[in-house]
Give the backbone structure.
Amino acid sequence: MGVIEFIEQIWENLKDNLLAGIPNAIVLVVGAVIFLVVAMAIIMLIRRLLTTVMQRSPLDKKIGGLIVKSIYALMLFTILVAFLEMIGLSQIALALGAAIAFIALAIGLAMNNVLGDFVAGGFLLGEKDFGEGFEVEAAGVKGTVVDVDMRKTRIRGDDGIYYVIPNKAVEGATWKVFKRPAETKKKAF
């Protein structure tokens, strides 16, 4: 076999195997891009609807924002995996899913206390017997609640000291309410 015959054979193999598959690949990629554009438009619409619903709900704004962001991130990840599947990269999609699962597990284990404070903060923010302006005794501190967020409760103690307490410590113990703020008093009694 001569050099020219060898080059002709390479060209025929290239033409038969690579060039014949290009139209199919173009159709797959164009279809996947159209899917991506439509899916992103739907996701943005869903995000706006969820934001509106959360703003009108009785949930605290911080919790509502967290729920919307979590759902949005999950939808984006789902669309990314579907896109990779559509263009024929199912192995990468599978590996990406497994990697995300392991990362989530590692973060969950590493942030056990933070997540506990976060969950307790969600309960405290929805609590009608605890909040900003209440005079309480919580986690061994007696004073006025200055702020409650998703991780910490801040109390100005009767001794003048400003205490920052993890929410898990407050939610996990009994607290005493000595005085309610005026606007809560009208609703509660």
Remarks:
- The chain has two domains: 3-110, 131-181.
- Residues 22-56 form the longest helix (35 residues).
- The CA atoms of residues 43 and 76 lie 8 Å apart.
- The beta strands are 135-138, 141-148, 152-157, 162-166, 176-179.
